[in-house]
Specification:
Elements lengths: L4 H12 L10 H17 L9 H6 L20 E5 L3 H13 L2 E6 L10 E6 L2 E6 L12 H8 L5 E2 L16 H25 L8 H11 L6 H18 L25 E2 L5 H8 L4 E3 L3 E7 L2 E6 L2 E5 L1 E4 L3 H5 L4 E3 L4 H9 L6 E6 L16 E6 L1 H8 L11 H4 L7 E3 L12 H23 L15 H7 L5 E3 L2 E5 L9 E8 L13 H8 L7 E8 H8 L5 H10 L12 H12 L2
Parallel strand pairs: 1-2, 1-11, 2-7, 8-12, 11-15
Antiparallel strand pairs: 3-4, 5-6, 8-9, 9-10, 13-14, 16-17, 17-18, 18-19
Helix pairs in contact: 1-2, 2-5, 4-14, 6-7, 6-8
């Protein structure tokens, strides 16, 4: 179903009683319209799986940051420092303020928005607002930014599907050959999907570009020069969509975020630029500009954030800086981040896409095309051209480490931003939603510290006995192959930690029956050369489900666990204090 803005207005109009066409709407009218908009968003698939009960109770209100947001929420005394005033940081700040937290935002630039930046361009009274960073709301079915724009009465300018193509000599491409090659391109992508299903795990190491080129030659598609030029345009457009060269995109994972599209709908611009959203989000939020953070110290007593010669102290800190800042180690973490998170930061890449904006005093490209406001053209440079433009090597997208990147550290240090959002990477709404997600995590972490915590009661010298592990794994929460998992039954959070067990060794041995008692193992396996080995590791629910999706049997899963998830297997006696605490927490849940 295609999104129809006029139809949507009519639906809301009918429901709220013809208030949309009135210039002077009452507060009651606005509240009713807002609730209707929220219900439409929910019915179209607005993602609520990451929201906690208190957030859902808060709902969507007519005035951002209004008093009614706090009506159903018990205020807390927690304090949070947010590093970065981009969409993720601003969304988290507003949500935490509504929860009753004390919040301060530190921003290195002299403006909010981060990589969403609207710049005025032009001369001689001919100016245009250009979004130099994030610019398009990619589908407004249940997109939170689309909902926000409507609440703020900001018009949405639809990007039309009509996109005329021109040959190198300037002549327009004929409709017949255009439709033919578009069909060929879509069929090639369908074949890629079929092929990777057949190949299973082997598709991980094959590039999308090589598969497309092979299929193109195999089916003798695009035989003429014109047809090949058109097919190359579709390939280039695919590189633009992925911000990377096809030769560097994995045939297995290049479209991993497609299942999470927010119901589709029109892609839209905001006339005047996205600064209008930023202005609303930053209103009333305490932001310190020009505060470049140099170090973050975190521990049981709270956090200390150093920006220049100033030190900010709080209970928790949310780091929403871009992935590139983390890669450069511009911020020193004390203590150092866990190896798993450092490995995720190192291995996760980002694409390259350049934008060239040009403002003209008059239209020379035809008045029948899609234009509004001041006359402006934007050229997008992707693929090999973008690499030459930047004179840097391309970065490879490794989406399987996103779940590691977004984990909190010690319930004191949290991470947000579009790079931490597996479902909606490289989007403005992905950054926005990651801020809401981490606000939820901070709320739960604070609530957990204020309640009785069984972890605090475990002496440092305690090591879990094998019998405790045996009892835990008698009723695992998740099983596939030789992998068994147990988790805390009190939470379904994808970031909640659990224990995994795997049995290695001869399947014919009596010892392969996983968790038998110590006495049974000694009696049945005495003198046997084919004993099995019981190993463990700690991982999140999200990582367990990610491992479950790996094809090719237990050997491939084990390889994925060690190489991609960067987890270490250990015996029961090597689990350590954190593992002991986790086991006790799960056992007493």
């Amino acid at each position: 179903m295609n999104y129809d803005e006029n139809l949507m207005d009519e639906l809301i109009d009918n429901h709220v009683g013809r208030t949309l066409k009135k210039k002077n709407r009452t507060k009651k009218d606005l509240e009713k319209e807002t609730k209707t908009e929220a219900m439409l968003a929910l019915s179209l698939g607005f993602p609520i799986d990451a929201l906690i009960e208190e957030e859902i109770k808060a709902g969507v209100v007519s005035i951002l940051g209004g008093k009614e947001q706090n009506d159903d929420i018990v205020a807390t005394e927690g304090s949070v420092i947010i590093v970065g005033a981009g969409l993720a940081g601003l969304a988290a700040a507003r949500q935490l303020l509504s929860f009753g937290f004390k919040v301060v935002v530190l921003e290195g630039r002299n403006r909010p928005g981060g990589r969403v930046y609207t710049q005025k361009m032009g001369r001689n009274s001919q100016f245009a607002a250009v979004d130099l960073g994030g610019s398009v709301i990619t589908g407004i079915h249940a997109n939170p930014l689309g909902v926000m724009a409507r609440q703020l009465s900001i018009p949405l300018h639809k990007v039309r599907d009509n996109c005329p193509l021109y040959k190198p000599n300037g002549e327009p491409v004929g409709k017949e050959v255009d439709s033919k090659i578009e069909l060929v391109f879509n069929k090639l992508l369908d074949k890629v999907t079929e092929l990777r299903q057949i190949m299973g795990g082997f598709a991980n190491d094959i590039s999308l570009g090589s598969v497309l080129e092979t299929l193109q030659q195999l089916y003798a598609a695009a035989r003429t020069i014109e047809e090949r030029q058109l097919l190359d345009w579709h390939f280039a457009n695919l590189e633009y969509a992925n911000a990377g060269c096809l030769s560097n995109l994995s045939a297995a994972y290049w479209d991993q975020d497609d299942p999470y599209e927010m119901g589709g709908g029109d892609h839209c611009f905001l006339p005047g630029g996205n600064w209008r959203l930023l202005k609303a989000l930053s209103e009333g939020v305490p932001i310190f500009y020009g505060k470049t953070v140099h170090s973050i110290k975190y521990g049981n007593e709270g956090v200390e954030v150093v920006a220049g010669d100033q030190v900010f102290r709080a209970d928790m800190v949310l780091c929403s800086v871009p992935l590139g800042v983390l890669k450069k180690r511009s911020i020193r973490f004390k203590p150092e981040l866990p190896e798993r998170k450092l490995a995720a930061i190192e291995r996760l890449g980002f694409g390259l896409l350049n934008k060239v904006a040009m403002v003209f005093p008059y239209v020379f490209w035809g008045e029948d095309l899609d234009t509004f406001g001041c006359l402006m053209l934007i050229a997008l440079v992707a693929g090999d051209a973008a690499q030459s433009f930047e004179c840097t090597d391309p970065s490879t997208l490794l989406h399987h480490v996103l779940s590691i990147l977004r984990e909190s550290v010690g319930s004191r240090l949290f991470f947000a931003g579009e790079a931490t959002n597996r479902q909606y990477p490289a989007t403005m709404h992905g950054a926005f939603l990651s801020g809401l997600r981490e606000a939820s995590c901070i709320f739960r972490a604070t609530r957990g510290r204020h309640s009785s915590n069984p972890w605090d009661c475990i002496p440092k010298h305690v090591v879990p006995s094998n019998d405790i592990l045996v009892e835990l794994f008698k009723k695992p929460d998740l099983v596939f192959g030789n992998f068994l998992f147990v988790f805390d039954s009190q939470t379904e959070d994808a970031n909640s930690m659990g224990i995994m067990s795997i049995t290695l060794g001869s399947s014919n041995s009596e010892c392969s029956n996983g968790h038998s008692s110590k006495e049974e193992r000694e009696n049945s396996c005495h003198g046997s050369l084919n004993q099995t080995l019981q190993l463990y590791t700690m991982l999140s629910r999200g990582q367990a489900h990610e491992l479950q999706l790996v094809t090719g049997g237990d050997q491939n899963r084990l390889s994925y666990l060690l190489k991609c998830l960067v987890l270490k297997l250990m015996g029961a006696n090597a689990i350590g204090l954190f593992g002991s605490s986790l086991i006790a927490n799960i056992a007493t849940a």
